[in-house]
Write a structure and sequence with these properties.
The protein has 141 residues and is mainly beta. 3% of the residues lie in helices and 42% in strands. Strands 5-2-7-8 form a four-stranded antiparallel beta sheet, with no helix packed on it.
């Protein structure tokens, strides 16, 4: 298991009402096996945020699962009575490494933002711009 650590805040970087916010992690596909033969169910894992918006949860590493698997992360909002109000799903895949601890930003499998520049001797097609420091050349697609 890997401990995933993260924080959920609103667009003003304020704490979302912690009594009504739950973080749900759902496996991307059908149940699977790990390389060691452990069955991994596709049931969602739910964890509440604390009064600062922080959360931590133990998740099975996706890097040891058979097949291409990841988690979807969804914030679920409930009213005071515990009834569903709405939800927000993170648009990117979460890939959990086989490590003791990982932070949310390390687990997100997201493409670089438009306008970010790849710096390196060889091209990286995930980036719109590429700067080669050896030749001082800037290329773009």
């Amino acid at each position: 298991m890997t401990l995933l650590i993260g924080k959920a805040l609103d667009a003003r970087y304020s704490v979302i009402d912690y009594r009504s916010t739950t973080v749900k992690f759902t496996l991307s596909d059908d149940p699977t096996l790990t390389a060691a033969g452990t069955f991994v169910a596709d049931r969602p894992v739910m964890v509440a945020t604390d009064q600062t918006g922080s959360f931590s949860v133990d998740l099975a590493p996706t890097t040891t699962m058979r097949g291409d698997r990841w988690y979807w992360m969804t914030l679920v909002y409930l009213d005071e009575a515990g009834n569903f109000v709405s939800e927000d799903r993170l648009p990117w895949k979460l890939r959990i490494p086989d490590a003791p601890t990982v932070t949310l930003d390390e687990a997100i499998d997201a493409p670089p933002e438009a306008g970010e520049v790849w710096v390196g001797a060889t091209d990286n097609s995930d980036y719109q711009f590429w700067f080669n420091p050896d030749t001082q050349e800037l290329r773009w697609e």
